[in-house]
Amino acid sequence: MSEFDFDAVVVGAGAVGLACGFALSRRGLATVVLEAGPRIGEGVSARNSEVVHGGLYYPTGSLKARLCVQGRRALYAFLSERGIAFDRCGKLVVFNGPEELERLDAILNQARTNDVEGMEVLTAAQARAMEPDLRCDAALLSPQSGVFDSHGYMLALQGEIEARGGAVVLSTPFEGAEPLATGGWRISTGGDDPAVLTAARLVTAPGLDAQAVANRIAGLPPGTIPPGFFGKGVYFRLSGRAPFSRLVYPPPIPGALGTHYRRDLGGQAVFGPDLEFVPAPDYAVDPGRAGAFYDCIRKFWPGLPDGALQPDYAGVRPKLHGPGQPQPDFRIDGPEAHGLEGLVVLFGIESPGLTSSLAIGEEVAGRLGL
Fold it and tell me: Can you tell me the distance from the alpha carbon of 33 to that of 61, in angstroms, rounded to the nearest whole number?
């Protein structure tokens, strides 16, 4: 009988927290995932593009580069094996004008360095043969990119954890943790039924609350907790027929991948997100932001009709950089970073965190010596 209530506790039941719980439970650990909200996946995981990213842009040797490619391969296999909906539709990165064209070779070379399969350079004519309504001077095709049912995916992860004897406990906010003298962790939870439990290992993956949760862990050096920023992005839905079957992206902008197009699994066209740094999470969609969307979209789809964009939803990304600062890597901090055994804390798990989630779970297990 273990001296602990659980072998592992994970804080946060979004895609990444559930993937961490899955990775730990499949290694035979008695695992519980704590979620402050009333349902799984209602934070960052509920308000994104549901895109399976190829892994094109991320710097050589970064966690994002490695875990996105590994995670994508694992994700498609996971979805296929469990009958969860996805569409490996491919993605076109479109280049218009000399300044954008100058970036094509660098993006292609980075994608190949990152081991992204099947990348192709397309002329304007080749791209239009695939998508007749598209305007571009050249394009890159990433055939491994796609869209998927992220909620079906998270429900499957929850099911995998529970099938292995673990639990996902809702409406149970994390209040704090302290290391035990004999090893392991004493963890306090709140909500309607506050409790104290012990675990040999603790993983925090609470998305937008990463810094707040980390500050409640006794003994975690404050200098290891990076500043956090909220990057809001809004989406607009198209009234009318979806113009393209593939994802369409402009080249990345500073701090984000840029306002892009996708056809969702229901066949509707959605554009976004843009990027606006905000002082606190805020999910209102300002219809006035549509003007910038029209300008951006018409660079690659001149046929976008006036009045066709309808405000849809907003998401907030947990960023580790502010306006004008370079976008840093994921932070997956194990004992080598903070000196506390049996603890992994995650920060800045924004895009491509959803695509990378299964690989992040494996990385976390590795940081715990499993």
Answer: 30
